[in-house]
Design brief:
This protein has helices at about 5-20, 50-65, 75-90, and strands spanning about 25, 35-40, 45. The chain is about 45% helix and about 15% strand. A three-stranded mixed sheet has the order 1-3-2, covered by helices on one side. The protein is globular. The two termini are about 15 Å apart. The protein has one domain (about 5-85). The relative contact order is 0.19. The protein has about 90 residues and is an alpha+beta fold. The protein is built from three helices and three strands, in the order αβββαα. Helix 1 (about 5-20) packs parallel to helix 2 and helix 1 packs across helix 3 (about 75-90).
C-alpha cells in the first residue's frame, strides 16, 4: 500500500481506533513524542497543532504498539489494518 497522507486516511485511522474502543482527542500540551496515551481509559491525545501527516504518523506509531483484536473491527477497518501491517512489514525488511 502506498500510504497517502490525506484527511480521508486520517478519518479511516480514527474510525479504526474508535472500533478498538479508543478515543482520539486533539489537544495542546507538552508531549515529547507528539502524543500521550492514557492506557486505563483508552484515550490517545495528539498534539492539536500537528498537520494531517503528523497526526497520521502519531496514530500509526500508537497502533504499532497496541495489541489489536481484529475481531472488533468492521470488514473495511480490518482490511485497512491489514494493509497497514503489510506496509509496515515491507518497511522493516
Amino acid at each position: 500500500m502506498s500510504f497517502k497522507y490525506t484527511v480521508h486516511t486520517l478519518k479511516k485511522l480514527e474510525t479504526l481506533f474508535e472500533e478498538l474502543a479508543y478515543v482520539v482527542r486533539y489537544e495542546k500540551g507538552n508531549f515529547q513524542s507528539g502524543y500521550c496515551i492514557v492506557e486505563n481509559k483508552k484515550i490517545a491525545i495528539i498534539n492539536k497543532f500537528y498537520e494531517t501527516e503528523g497526526r497520521i504518523n502519531c496514530l500509526l506509531e500508537i497502533l504499532g504498539g497496541m495489541e489489536v483484536d481484529a475481531s472488533q473491527l468492521s470488514e473495511k477497518s480490518a482490511k485497512f489494518y491489514k494493509e497497514i501491517q503489510e506496509s509496515s512489514d515491507r518497511l522493516e525488511t
